[in-house]
Write a structure and sequence with these properties.
The chain has about 425 residues and is mostly beta strands. Helix content is about 15%, strand content about 40%. It contains four helices and 28 strands. The strands form six sheets. Strands 11, 14, 17, 19, 20, 22, 25 and 26 form an eight-stranded mixed sheet that branches. The longest helix has about 35 residues. The C terminus is likely disordered.
């Protein structure tokens, strides 16, 4: 009882002294709480930093935020660009079923975004609602595979030979795609040197615009535009480039001989674009394209109209096409005297018409002699000459004629010597 009375007396004394201003306020606090005051809770802090991540679209991205000494405070996730709140503690508050938050080991919060979209690209904030507020930011980069924009890319094109052309291929994606041009057939591309007429061979060309000045027929073909950015899959687009020009015709031989009863094959090489209509004629003379306009379509007096040949038992007609090149073939079956004469391979398209002429003659086989004439050379075993007739170049024909005349006389001299020698031995 005495102890209690003493404590009451001490409290009263302290109150009196406090009222008279003789005791600091801290003494009052100590008197009211005789036990020592506990220290304040430590402030929350982030552990480490949020690592930026990169994932392709369609995958899942995870950002990790670690906090120590959280205490009574809370952690939230926000989109940094517009401060949209996504989650608070472990509860998602945004209406996005692809977003979730996982709380692990009392100090780790993971923001997960499934089925990534390009719109998810950006930075996200991990925030502690302390005073002042504390935050950390981590970013997600969403990779998007390339895609070619057909509306802004070239379709198949056709130009005249000698004109310029540019084919375009626009692609989008993240990172920005690289655009590469190649030929579809795997051959080298032919590109013109700047400020030059020379064409150089390259395996590929990089760039969205492929410029082709003064096009040549050799550059015709299908080109592939390939867009890639190291995010699979790469994509490609096919662009067909057609170079148009009038036909040119070149017979493989202008004079051809064969023995009776054999099958004779005549050939012509044609270059034309667009694809030509080709046919064979026999006899007569093929008239120039403007002949009908000048003479009302009438042939000269004494000049027979050529006969068009059709595929059948007598004639075999085939074509072999490789791009703008065509090989015309005519097989004359069971060669007879009626088949001797001139044959014309004719090719025409929307830009013009061309023809080549071949002369077919009979080779007479004799057992012991050689006969020559103005229009034919008879040799044991047969001989085909390529000397006379029309062609596509006058100078080339002159050279060919001279060369073949020399060859003709050389063969005659040699064979005549053989005949003389044979006659001497027989005697």
């Amino acid at each position: 009882m005495e102890i209690v009375c003493m404590q009451i007396a001490m409290v009263l004394t302290l109150i009196v002294k406090c009222l008279h201003g003789s005791l600091p306020s801290i003494a009052l606090q100590e008197a009211s709480n005789p036990q020592q005051q506990q220290p304040a809770d430590p402030e929350p802090e982030f552990e480490g930093t949020i690592q930026n991540v990169t994932f392709p679209a369609g995958r899942e991205a995870v950002l990790t935020c670690s906090v120590k000494n959280l205490g009574r405070y809370k952690v939230g996730w926000l989109r940094a660009s517009d401060q949209t709140v996504l989650a608070l503690q472990g509860r998602v508050v945004t209406h996005n079923s692809r977003i979730s938050v996982v709380h692990e080991d009392m100090r780790t919060w993971r923001l997960r975004i499934r089925q990534l979209r390009e719109s998810d690209r950006g930075c996200y904030m991990c925030q502690i609602n302390a005073s002042p507020m504390k935050k950390q930011i981590g970013c997600i980069d969403v990779q998007v595979p390339p895609d070619i924009i057909n509306e802004e890319s070239s379709a198949d094109i056709a130009v005249q030979e000698g004109e310029d052309a540019t084919i375009v291929c626009k692609a989008v994606g993240h990172p920005t795609p690289r655009v590469t041009w190649k030929r579809e057939d795997g051959e080298y591309m032919l590109l013109r040197k700047p400020q030059s007429r020379e064409l150089i061979r390259v395996e590929a060309y990089n760039g969205t615009h492929l410029h082709l000045p003064k096009l040549e027929r050799r550059q015709m073909g299908a080109y592939l535009c390939i867009a890639s950015n190291d995010v699979p899959p790469a994509v490609s687009k096919r662009v067909s480039l057609s170079v148009h020009f009038a036909p040119s015709v070149r017979p493989t031989s202008q004079l051809l001989g064969a023995p009776l009863g054999s099958d004779v094959q005549l050939e012509c090489a044609v270059e034309a674009s667009p694809g030509p209509v080709s046919y064979w004629l026999k006899g007569g003379r093929v008239l120039p394209p403007n002949f009908a306009h000048l003479t009302n379509g009438n042939y000269e007096q004494g000049q027979s109209r050529p006969e068009m040949l059709l595929d059948g038992p007598k004639y075999g007609i085939t074509e072999e096409r490789h791009g703008f090149r065509t090989i015309m073939r005519l097989v004359v079956r069971f060669f007879s005297p009626a088949d001797v004469g001139t044959y014309h391979c004719v090719s025409t398209n929307s830009l013009g018409k061309a023809d080549g002429t071949m002369r077919l003659y009979e080779i007479k086989i004799h057992q012991g002699g050689v006969q020559t004439g103005d229009d034919q050379l008879n040799i044991i075993g047969g001989l085909a000459e390529a000397a006379r007739g029309r062609g596509n170049g006058s100078s080339a024909n002159s050279l060919t004629t001279c060369s073949n005349l020399r060859l003709r006389w050389l063969v005659v001299i040699l064979l005549s010597g053989l005949v003389v020698s044979s006659s001497s031995n027989g005697r």
